[in-house]
């Protein structure tokens, strides 16, 4: 089995602020059920975490820029790591991700390269 990172991009940076407690609980229940299903089938390596929409980026010259200026659809908003036989199986897993309950999101599926 190989490991694959799901890189969540886009979404509404103000959703957590504007969501009602009921909306938040409903979405968290979907995430919990999805993670439990992956764990039960030994496909979950790490549930990952959501990431704040603001941050800093350093380039090779150590120039620091604010990533809030990047288009929202390009901002990484979180990640998870799963175990699958191949990238097609990983994509099949990603299709059921609760992130798609939010508008304007994408999931990038990337194989984690094992070093050494």
What does this entry show, briefly?
Residues 22-115 form the YCII-related domain. The chain is α+β, with helices and mostly antiparallel strands and 116 residues long.
Textual characterization of the structure:
InterPro entries: Dimeric_a/b-barrel, YCII. Residues 22-115 form the YCII-related domain. The chain has a four-stranded antiparallel sheet. A two-stranded antiparallel sheet has the order 3-4. The mean pLDDT is 91. The chain is α+β, with helices and mostly antiparallel strands. The radius of gyration is 16 Å and the shape is flat. The chain contains three helices and six strands, in the order E-H-H-E-E-E-E-H-E. Helix content is 28%, strand content 33%. A hairpin with a 5-residue loop joins strand 3 and strand 4 (64-66). It has a single domain, classed as Alpha-Beta Plaits (2-Layer Sandwich).
Characteristic terms for this protein:
single chain, four-stranded antiparallel beta sheet, Alpha-Beta Plaits, alpha+beta, flat, two-stranded antiparallel sheet, 116 residues
């Amino acid at each position: 089995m190989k490991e694959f990172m799901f890189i969540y991009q886009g979404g509404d940076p103000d959703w957590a602020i504007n969501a009602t407690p009921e909306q938040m609980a409903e979405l968290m229940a979907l995430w919990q059920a999805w993670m439990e299903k992956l764990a039960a089938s030994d496909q979950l390596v790490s549930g990952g975490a959501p990431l704040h929409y603001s941050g800093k980026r350093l380039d090779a010259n150590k120039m620091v820029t604010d990533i809030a200026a990047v288009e929202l659809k390009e901002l990484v908003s979180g990640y998870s790591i799963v175990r699958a036989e191949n990238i097609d199986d990983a994509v099949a897993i990603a299709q059921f991700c609760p992130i798609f309950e939010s508008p304007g999101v994408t999931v990038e599926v990337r194989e984690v390269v094992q070093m050494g």
